[in-house]
Specification:
Layout lengths: L1 H20 L6 H14 L3 E2 L11 E5 L2 E3 L13 E6 L1 E3 L2 E2 L2 E6 L6 H23 L3 H14 L3 E2 L5 E3 L6 E5 L16 E4 L2 E3 L5 E3 L6 E3 L5 E3 L2 E6 L2 E4 L7 H4 L10
Antiparallel strand pairs: 1-5, 2-4, 3-14, 4-7, 5-6, 8-12, 9-10, 9-11, 11-16, 12-15, 13-14, 16-17
Helix pairs in contact: 1-2, 3-4
The chain binds magnesium ion (MG) (2 copies).
């Protein structure tokens, strides 16, 4: 877990660099370059690049694009809602994290609420992971926040286990799926990643074979962290403070692995 925490911290810095690059007039390729530079400078390896043929270091998804957007020539404009998803490998151990933000000033307060709700759903899920015995409890916590905020979870896309590969068992759904889910045990590492849409939960995949867009074209938000559960508690591997600040309102103090 020490190596996963190292990979996590590099990913956090890469995401911060991508966000800083996301000014009006920048392209999504600029965000990819900024994140890639941080990962390479740290001596780590991007885990998205080449994943089932994915051609970039980050996924950059704008507005109606929910996840898996391919960075390229798309020019960002004021008010765009951007999700950047990124990960890397340190000595064989993976990290995976995503942030959403608005380029410049928001177009509507609803976009701000959308991003805030995804983050709150994420942290509610992380907090539940600290005490849960089954993954289904994490899903319930994510869904409760999503629903209370008046948004919808993207149907069919889930979080996952992470470790020696980016995507491992178990699945971590963002809504109840009718089963208790996998048993939570010390040593388990998962990526929790709520994907919220304003309108319908349905989605389509563009002709590029990757980009997932909301079926009704409504805007979306995505937030993700990789988290370790160990004997004495949890540690958010992709947050520099292990999640201390965002877990404090839940009465949870992260414990370093
Ligand atoms: Mg991710
Ligand atoms: Mg993920």
């Amino acid at each position: 877990m020490r190596l996963m925490a190292a990979a996590g911290q590099i990913t956090e810095r890469a995401l911060a660099a991508a966000r800083a690059a996301a000014v009006p007039g920048a392209t999504t390729a600029d965000l990819d370059a900024a994140a890639g530079a941080v990962i390479r400078a740290a001596g780590a390896t991007p885990n998205f690049l080449g994943y089932h043929g994915f051609p970039a270091t980050v996924c950059a998804s704008v507005n109606e694009e929910v996840v898996h957007g391919i960075p390229g020539a798309r020019v960002l404009v004021e008010g765009d809602v951007v999700s950047v998803d990124c990960g890397c490998i340190v000595e064989g151990w993976h990290s995976d994290s995503a942030i959403s933000f608005i380029v410049g000033e928001p177009l509507t307060p609803r976009d701000v609420e959308l991003i805030d709700a995804a983050e709150r759903a994420l942290w509610a899920g992380i907090a539940r992971f600290a005490t849960s015995t089954r993954i289904g409890e994490v899903s319930d916590a994510i869904f409760e926040v999503t629903e209370a905020a008046g948004f919808h979870p993207l149907d069919g896309y889930v979080g996952h286990g992470i470790g020696t590969a980016m995507h491992m068992a178990p699945e971590v759904p963002n809504y109840p799926v009718g089963t208790a889910g996998a048993k939570v045990a010390p040593g388990m590492c998962i990526a929790i990643e709520p994907m919220l849409v304003i309108g319908t939960s349905d989605s389509d995949v563009l002709d590029d074979g990757w980009t997932v867009v909301s079926a009704d074209g409504s805007r979306s938000s995505h937030a993700e962290h990789s988290i370790a559960r160990h004997e004495d508690g949890i540690w958010v591997l992709t947050a520099a403070d292990g999640g201390a600040e965002r877990l404090a309102p839940f009465g949870i103090e992260p414990v370093a692995p």
